[in-house]
Amino acid sequence: MSHRWGMVVDLDRCTGCEACVVACHAENNIPTVGPAEAARGRAMHWLRVERYWEGEFPDVRLKFRPVLCQQCNAAPCEPVCPTYASHHTEEGLNAQVYNRCIGTRYCANACSYNVRFFNFFNPVWEKPLHLQLNPDVSLREVGVMEKCTFCVQRIKAKTQQVKAENRELKDGELKPACAQSCPATAILFGDLNDPESQVSRLSRSSRGEKLLEELGTLPNITYLKGQAEA
Amino acid sequence: MTDSAQKMTEDLLRPLLVTSWRFYVVVLVLFGIVLLGVGAFAYQVDRGIGVWGLNWPVFWAFDITNFVFWIGISHAGTLISAILRLVNAGWRRPVTRCAEVITAFALMIGAMFPIVHLGRPWLFFWLMPYPTERQIWPNFRSPLVWDFFAISTYLTGSLLFLYLPTIPDFALVRDRTTGWRRKVYGALALGWRGTTRQWHRLESAMQIMAIAIIPVAVSVHTIVSFDFSMAIVPMWHSTIFGPYFVAGAIFSGIAALIIAMAALRKFLHLEAYLHPVHFENLGKLLLMMSLLWGYFVFAERLTTWYGNESSEMSVFWATQRGSYAPLYWTMVTVNFIVPVFILSFKKLRTVTGCVIASCGVVAGMWLERFLIIVPTLSHKYLSYSWGSYRPRIPEILLLIATFGAMGLLYVLFSKFVPIISIWELKVGEQPEIEDAEVTRDEASTLWRTNP
After folding, report:
1. Is the pLDDT of residue B311 over 80?
2. Chain A hits for B58, Cβ within 8 Å
3. Which CATH superfamily is domain B2-448 in?
4. Which carries the bigger pLDDT value, residue A228 or residue B382?
5. What pLDDT, on a 0 to 100 scale, did the predictor assign at position B450?
6. A150: closest CA among A217, A184, A199, A106?
7. Residues 19-58 of A with CB under 8 A from B
8. With 50 as the cut, is the pLDDT of residue B433 above it?
9. Model-level pTM?
10. Candidates 3.30.420.40, 1.25.40.10, 3.30.70.20, 3.40.50.1820; correct CATH number of A5-224?
């Protein structure tokens, strides 16, 4: 059976701890750019926790929304790339081929969610950070675009292992770094082609919504939000 | 007639044959400015695009503004001169070549930027379809690939359009010079003898090019506008962008032409050929385009405001009364208020008046492109990811260098090629042979006038 990878993020569970952000950086060899560059707006977080305040002071509520690539089925970033560096895989992922990217940055401008990041300089890892690089993930050089891959290296490894063991993938067996590290289990990952998987069931929930659904980008990520409270 | 033809030939060939020290100074200064830009580009290639002020989420700014701006300027030429030729406007004669040259050079400068702006500019050829063993083609759905085809078509067409009517003038220079000049211009003249047959062919070819270049020019700037309007991004995703960009391009093109003509008139002492009436007529065209531009802006702004769509309103207010408002209202002033005021009055439609209006329009049209790109990118949907932009020195140098390059190429061109079409002017001196059929034979005789 072919897969279609999807994610569910329960906003009522998210505590905004940003463990997912740290895990994502570590797993995917995402460089930190340092305070000066970060102040210029060059920080790279494939996954970010957006904070929004609701209500009037002093009755303020803080809301969190982890935002990562929505892995759209009708992705605005894909058709605009002149070299197919940004393209759609058979398993529904928006893949970015770093070696094919020439850095027009058009995909980032077309992306409605601003979840694409550009290597403005060659990345550096100060010692001893260079010792913790993940060997399964390629390093990106100056001038190329990068973004959340749904931890495609984990997807590849797990599906190959499952195939070698001649069995079906169990629901919840495969987790990207963000889902794995979330202490509140606000992030769930799975196969949307399996109607019984947890993500399939939850993405059909009445609490579910897509981010900027009105744009018609058909994201593979569903956000869950309580309906009782106003 | 012969006397005036002789004087004309002498006047217009003088810049080619006599070189003053001022020429070298101007060339050196302009070359220095271009070198600054080359240096900035080398620095950027060495370090990365990070030496510019770009950031997340403003991934395009000066680079694409320059691109759209210069492609816009290029509409001066070919389009205007093609239309004026087709309607057989007599006053076009001294103007057409000045305009066609702007097209060719502005296109070359503009077409650099899709390469300069790349994160990895050394791989620019991946934008082109070329045979490779991996059989990878560019993505034909991408407007950037459409740009490649549109611009290369337009550049080829406008170079031909510039070259064709220059052939008789090259032959004229060949016949009046000796040494290396005779050889070089002889090669460029392609064996022109001024026979009736040759005139006939030249005329047909120019007619074909004049008709063909108009749809190409319109399509080029429409496709440039598609770079923005194809993306579902607030204030970009608009059906008005195609004609809006084409109108803006012609608008800035006429302004550039007026400035270039005024400079030629002053520095090459062409007062006898570029009359105030030429500026007056171009000023009227500029006035019309200014009104058209104002109409487009009004139509775009009113529909956005009335529709009141929240993501678009963020961009709308950022330009209307937010942080980009000073730039926005400067643009409206120099693109609309000032030119309409100056050019509406015959008394103010002088050479100086037209040049003042044109300088404003050139600056304003650059701002217009900047204000289409940056406020939108810094105010896309999710307010958490809003940003801002501030240019840094390398991209400012690149912008200055584009003007330096335009000046340098223009000065060099007018040094080596008669900047006013001599044979067309001579034909124009004969009011009784304005009729195209007669023109051919008469032109033949006139062209031979070689006292």
Report:
1. yes
2. 41
3. Formate dehydrogenase/DMSO reductase domain (1.20.1630.10)
4. B382
5. 47
6. A199
7. 37, 40-44, 48, 50-52
8. no
9. 0.94
10. 3.30.70.20
